[in-house]
Amino acid sequence: MAAASKGQTFIVMGVSGVGKSTLAQALARALKAQYLEADDLHPKSNIDRMAQGLPLTDEMRIPWLQALRSAISEHHHHHPDKDLVATCSALKRQYRDLLKTNNPQTTFLHLTAPKDVILHRMAKRQDHFMPASLLSSQFAALEPLTKDEDHLLIDATLPPKDIMKRVLFLLSRSHHLN
Questions:
Q1: Of 10, 23, 108, 140, most Cβ neighbours within 10 A?
Q2: Predicted TM-score of the model (pTM)
Q3: Does the pLDDT value for residue 74 go beyond 80?
Q4: To the nearest whole percent, how much of the chain has pLDDT over 90?
């Protein structure tokens, strides 16, 4: 496989249950990149709130996003030649802009799927704090990416192996991979 242009950040984004962690982990392995799960950076208060079926407010999300941005910046400071693959819902433009601050080489990989497909997947998940009841609030908050945001749209209804092939193809075609 082709080597990546080093020092990039790939953020696998989308609503809960769309397959962010699966793709991000596989992509990190393929690129020999560092993997970062943004959910691990949530304070316990955020996890508890979501587990109760209550959506987070912007005031609750911003410190979490700032922690993720700091973790990305710290990674690139200590490992300037190593790519980073992170997961983050990144539903709103302001969240994505915040994540890109100090991290200009950031590409968003937006996994998309119809709500019914995601609900079916979420029903089969074990040991995850995000209840399916919050999915509607996530779809309501989602602001589609615009042309001036470096991103790729990925069909999450494909089998994981096909998603991975498609992502690598799109990244190579868009010169994110050399």
A1: 10
A2: 0.89
A3: yes
A4: 67
